[in-house]
TrEMBL record:
<feature type="site" description="Important for catalytic activity, responsible for pKa modulation of the active site Glu and correct orientation of both the proton donor and substrate">
    <location>
        <position position="136"/>
    </location>
</feature>
<feature type="domain" description="Beta-xylosidase C-terminal Concanavalin A-like">
    <location>
        <begin position="333"/>
        <end position="534"/>
    </location>
</feature>
<dbReference type="InterPro" id="IPR023296">
    <property type="entry name" value="Glyco_hydro_beta-prop_sf"/>
</dbReference>
<dbReference type="Pfam" id="PF17851">
    <property type="entry name" value="GH43_C2"/>
</dbReference>
<feature type="active site" description="Proton acceptor">
    <location>
        <position position="13"/>
    </location>
</feature>
<dbReference type="GO" id="GO:0005975">
    <property type="term" value="P:carbohydrate metabolic process"/>
</dbReference>
<feature type="active site" description="Proton donor">
    <location>
        <position position="195"/>
    </location>
</feature>
<keyword id="KW-0326">Glycosidase</keyword>
<dbReference type="InterPro" id="IPR041542">
    <property type="entry name" value="GH43_C2"/>
</dbReference>
<dbReference type="InterPro" id="IPR013320">
    <property type="entry name" value="ConA-like_dom_sf"/>
</dbReference>
<dbReference type="GO" id="GO:0004553">
    <property type="term" value="F:hydrolase activity, hydrolyzing O-glycosyl compounds"/>
</dbReference>
<protein>
    <submittedName>
        <fullName>Xylan 1,4-beta-xylosidase</fullName>
    </submittedName>
</protein>
<dbReference type="InterPro" id="IPR006710">
    <property type="entry name" value="Glyco_hydro_43"/>
</dbReference>
<keyword id="KW-0378">Hydrolase</keyword>
<comment type="similarity">
    <text>Belongs to the glycosyl hydrolase 43 family.</text>
</comment>
<dbReference type="InterPro" id="IPR051795">
    <property type="entry name" value="Glycosyl_Hydrlase_43"/>
</dbReference>
<dbReference type="Pfam" id="PF04616">
    <property type="entry name" value="Glyco_hydro_43"/>
</dbReference>
Length: 546
């Protein structure tokens, strides 16, 4: 049995490919570096994070990218002995006139690139620039060997439909560029916001899969087909083949942006993004996740969900494949290797040596104090995804700030305007102390601070957070003494897609990690010995555990 989501936490825009007995899903990473997450499975039930291919400056540099921009919607395919990875690097989003992606922002910058590799773990090539006409690019390998790029077409003209359909254009492998004319093959339906194209060939038909309705609660998967690649395309009789827009009762909401894969025996499965709202607040702190479920081809040649209902399933039938489990991820990540543990990422820059070191103090992650927590350039923040509504996390920091412009600690982070940060700093009167800064995107007062709590100098400090859905609590201690709980209860629901200033880009997900700032520019460092993370069940009283 498949338990959805199979990729919990921020893993949107899934693209799936099977190569032999191996299945790979690529998902968006936005402003987090390295770019694109690729997970691996052999049974479509159990998955492990395998690699992130965009890992050097020649492939990706996101310095200055706004929150929720960067790498969007990768497409992963395999042909001619190569893995082909297409992705968008978003440089400008703009502010829309509404909270949805459809609003009035006109000028945006989307650059679409192609990289290849003979093996899934790389090394991957330097990128080939394809176009900048829109986002969600997808590469289709036709039976005759020709290749076509599809993408959403952006129309900035006043009064126009910003999501102006799906365009296709041939890609020449020998020339390394698009050739011929682009053709708008699908204008979309009345649901609007047409994006996320994927093309398939089956029984003499070209099947086009798109997402419509926006990435919120109106999201859905649309299908059309044609006898010729460039159309004309006829709509599926149901138009939308998977959605939760009319089913507020189902656990997986915001379902859309899908891709298809066949098992060796010909069974079709669909991967798609989804969101799991908090019960009490209705916000998706985990961002957009990845789910998978079986599909069925009808006698009329159209694809539908296996149960015929067209709704996302929390549990779905697994394929007839041998079970293949992976080792469970450790609860505690030490920093004993030359490379950062795979669950962790940083923000924007291809030069992580400016932000952190694993060699400066062996067995520790050293963060060099850089810019403020809201910076879009060099920010020393290393974090991992929150992948459950309830979790415990802790770390220990060795940090001796000299003044109030130096900070380091434990942060629950969504973006530069959405976080709760428990940090050490220094005050002329109090000396070393702890306090919490919260950046609140949907409150009258955007930034709030708790009263400082004095802590002894000269010793590392353990920091802890307990999150239970919308409830967030912080604690601290020195040595292994009793935990000192801060009296405040913080609102975890602001770490969500839905909590934002109207019209701002808002598509990421909640992370939990370690940060260090030195806004005086002296680069004071903080050393972190370990980081614990444990997803768990809801606790009525998290403080009861000590």
């Amino acid at each position: 049995m498949i338990q959805n989501p199979v990729l919990p936490g921020f893993n949107p825009d899934p693209s799936i490919v099977r190569v032999g007995d191996d299945y790979y899903i690529a998902t968006s990473t936005f402003e987090w570096y390295p770019g694109v997450q690729i997970h691996h499975s052999r049974d479509l039930v159990h998955w492990r994070l395998l690699t992130r291919p965009l890992n050097r400056a020649s492939q990706l540099n996101m310095l200055g990218a706004p929150d929720s921009c960067g790498v969007w919607a990768p497409c992963l395919t395999y042909a001619d002995g190569l893995f082909w990875l297409i992705y968008t690097d978003v440089k400008r989003y703009g502010r829309t006139s509404t909270g949805a992606a459809s609003g009035g922002a006109s000028l945006r910058d989307f650059h679409n690139y192609l990289v290849t590799s003979p093996t899934i773990e790389g090394p991957w090539s330097d990128p080939v620039h394809l176009n900048s006409s829109g986002f969600d690019p997808s590469l289709f390998h036709d039976d005759d060997g020709r290749k076509y790029l599809l993408n959403q077409l952006w129309d900035h003209r006043p009064g126009s439909n910003r999501f102006n359909g799906i365009v296709a254009q041939e890609y020449s492998v020998t020339e390394g560029r698009l050739v011929g004319q682009r053709v708008n093959i699908f204008p979309g339906t009345a649901h609007g916001l047409t994006e996320a194209p994927h093309l398939y060939r089956r029984n003499g038909w070209y099947y086009l899969l798109t997402a419509e309705g926006g990435t919120g609660f109106q999201h859905g998967v649309t299908m059309a087909r044609a006898r010729a690649l460039l159309g004309p395309y006829e709509l599926h009789p149901d138009v939308t083949i998977l959605t939760a827009r009319d089913r507020p009762d189902v656990a997986l909401q915001r379902a859309g942006h899908a891709d298809l894969v066949d098992t060796p025996d010909g069974q079709t499965y669909m991967v798609y993004l989804c969101g799991r709202p908090l019960r009490n607040r209705g916000t998706c702190t985990l961002g957009r996740e990845t789910a998978i479920q079986p599909m069925a081809w009808g006698e009329d040649g159209w694809l539908r969900t296996a149960d015929g209902r067209g709704t996302p399933q929390l549990q779905a039938a697994s394929p007839a494949l041998p079970e293949h489990r992976f080792d469970a991820a450790p609860v505690r990540e030490g920093f004993n290797d030359a490379a950062l543990p795979l669950p962790f990422q940083w923000l924007r820059t291809p030069w992580p040596e400016e932000l952190f070191s694993l060699a400066a103090r062996p067995g520790h992650l050293r963060l060099f104090g850089r810019e403020s927590l809201g910076s879009q350039f060099r920010q020393a923040l290393v974090a991992r995804r929150q992948d459950g509504h309830c979790f415990s996390a802790a770390t220990v920091v060795d940090f001796e700030p000299q003044h109030y412009q130096q900070q380091a600690g434990l942060v629950c982070y969504y973006g530069g305007t959405k976080f709760h940060y428990l940090y050490l700093s220094h005050d002329e009167a109090l000396g070393r102390h702890l306090r919490v800064m919260s950046s609140l995107p949907n409150h009258v007062q955007a930034d709030t601070f708790t009263e400082p709590v004095p802590v002894p100098s000269g010793v590392p400090v353990q920091l802890r957070v307990e999150v239970d859905e919308e409830r967030l609590l912080f604690a601290w201690r020195v040595d292994d003494g009793a935990w000192n709980w801060l009296p405040q209860q913080f609102d975890a629901s602001i770490l969500s897609d839905e909590a934002c200033a109207p019209g701002a880009p808002n598509f990421t997900g909640a992370f939990i990690g370690m940060a260090c700032q030195d806004m005086a520019g002296t680069g004071l460092h903080a050393d972190f010995d370990w980081f614990d993370y444990r997803a768990r069940a809801y606790l009525v009283n998290p403080k009861a555990g000590g």
